[in-house]
Amino acid sequence: MSLDRPDGAGPRRVLLLGATGTIGRATARALAARGHAVVCLVRRSAGPAPPAGAGDPPGAPPGVTERIVDFTDPASLARDGIRGEPFDVLVSCLASRTGLPDDAWAIDYGVSVRALQASRAAGVTHVVLLSAICVQKPILAFQQAKLAFEAVLTASGLDYTIVRPTAFFKSLSGQVERLKRGKPFLVFGDGTLTACKPISDGDLGRYLAACLDDPARRNRVLPIGGPGEAITPLAQGERLFALLGREPRFRHVPVVLLDGIVAVLATLGRWVPGLAAKAELARIGRYYATESMLVRDPATGRYEAAMTPSTGSETLFDYYAQLIRGEAVAERGDHAVF
What we know:
Layout: E1 13-17, H1 22-33, E2 37-43, E3 64-69, H2 74-82, E4 89-92, H3 101-121, E5 126-130, H4 141-154, E6 159-165, H5 176-180, E7 185-188, H6 201-210, E8 220-224, H7 233-244, E9 250-253, H8 255-268, H9 273-290, E10 295-296, E11 303-304, H10 316-325
Parallel strand pairs: 1-2, 1-4, 2-3, 4-5, 5-6, 6-8, 7-9
Antiparallel strand pairs: 10-11
């Protein structure tokens, strides 16, 4: 029997995708804290498949169940994930690991479509999707794949909430160890080409969980950032040096250098597939070096901090202090730029 209530209040049965990532884990905790019954569908790792009916793997937060599925196989989604049970809400924090074209279209689009179909058959009536604010200017494959799935979702007839966050703390923490080793902070141009309102995993997870209970967030695309003013790379570096008790030292990298790297790799990639992949990664790096992670005003094409909503209480600079004290570890994975 579904736990959904006619007025949308009360606990619900939630399917959660992407729960092995830092944001997914934070979202699982936030959903469980609100009393929802959370079942996380987790990608199967390399190795032999578990026998049918195998128990749930350990490691899930309290009040949360994990089930291993093969997302490439619709039968596995039904057999190993849904298990014939009813669900009310699908929450997806799923994302491709690298952003490369094949990976992006397989995960951000293909797996997402299959999961949407399977969850709809299980009774889901509301989908909360973690997307990305950078799809406002889609020139990369992973952005186009995300937008393609957003289009499928909005046309599905289900209630939807599409959340497009700005930069994550972990994405802006790659140079902490550099500075601790006495190296300068790298910035592109003068360090003020871009800005963002970074958001923590915890604040984002709580925002996503709250979408289940807020009717005003239904059938909307919601950009969201963290608390405080927009922050430039220059400001990030200055604060890191201050926390380390050192004089600021910057190395300014011209954007044209990135353009040259992309051009060379793209040319060589015509004959060497591995270099074609590196060219796409370089394009991704260039994008983040030159485009702000803020709401883009469609009338002017400019990124506007004032148009970018804020939420939460955890700041990037508090996180930097935790990293320096050894109280936090940045799990950056394949999305690292530096």
